[in-house]
Design brief:
The complex is a heterodimer of chains A (114) and B (114). Chain A has 114 residues and is an all-beta fold. Chain A is 0% helix and 55% strand. In chain B, strands 2, 4, 5, 9, 10 and 11 form a six-stranded mixed beta sheet that branches. A five-stranded antiparallel beta sheet of chain B has the order 1-3-8-7-6, with no helix packed on it. The radius of gyration of chain B is 14 Å and the shape is globular. The chains are: A mainly beta (114), B mainly beta (114).
Chain lengths: 114, 114
């Protein structure tokens, strides 16, 4: 009974390629997030959706485009991959979009750009 | 923008020793959350503190929220090898519409030697 799942778990690709990461949550949560964790384990929010509506859009290159087809799914598409995009990408969800909700993280997708 | 700093960055202890990590925010927080990430794993929610001066305990873990709601600490008594991992504090900035945006500290990586 995986609460927040991501595919793929590992992604190795070359510079310039386009790739997508998919995320699904079965918790019935309204809000979903994408985080990037770099090699120093720094965890930074990228995007957040609440009921399919984009509510947080941090300073992220426009090569990154999130899409939420429904409130249980949040995908991340990355165009023209660069070496600096190598990181672990975590999807997360929370019951609501307010400040008091705990976040449930997926297992992560380790992206390696060569 | 809001900054959340954690110290120390690394902590090596012998099993049975105590451990403390400190978290400081540049702005007042509406609440503070703590997460634990095991090596190779994903962040897992531990606890949330909301009130000024609040102290909560979970078995050997004691969490405190500062009176000014700008700092927090996590103390582990008599560490065990199962405590190994990275401990993150995270908080939304008080006031405004942060839409659940959590700013994470850079984490404290705890190593426990048996």
């Amino acid at each position: 009974d995986t609460a927040v799942s991501q595919t793929p778990k590992y992604l190795v690709t070359q510079m310039g390629n386009d790739k997508s990461i998919k995320c699904e949550q079965n918790l019935g949560h309204d809000t979903m997030y994408w985080y990037k964790q770099d090699s120093k384990k720094f965890l930074k929010i990228m995007f957040s959706y609440n009921n399919k509506e984009l509510i947080i859009n941090e300073t992220v290159p426009n090569r990154f485009s999130p899409k939420s087809p429904d409130k249980a799914h949040l995908n991340l598409h990355i165009n023209s991959l660069e070496l600096g995009d190598s990181a672990v990408y975590f999807c997360a969800s929370s019951q609501g979009s307010g400040t008091g909700y705990e976040q449930y993280f997926g297992p992560g997708t380790r992206l390696t750009v060569t | 923008g809001q900054q959340v700093m954690q110290i120390p960055q690394y902590q090596h202890v012998q099993e049975g020793e105590d451990f403390t990590t400190y978290c400081n925010s540049s702005t007042t927080l509406s609440n503070i959350q703590w997460y634990k990430q095991r090596p190779g794993g994903h962040p897992v929610f531990l606890i949330q503190l909301v009130k000024s001066g609040e102290v909560k305990k979970q078995k050997r873990l004691t969490f405190q929220f500062g009176e000014a709601k700008k700092n927090s600490s996590l103390h582990i008594t008599a560490t065990q090898t199962t405590d190994v991992g990275t401990y993150f504090c995270a908080g939304p900035e008080a006031g405004g519409t942060s839409y659940g945006k959590l700013t994470f500290g850079q984490g404290t990586i705890l190593t426990v030697h048996p």
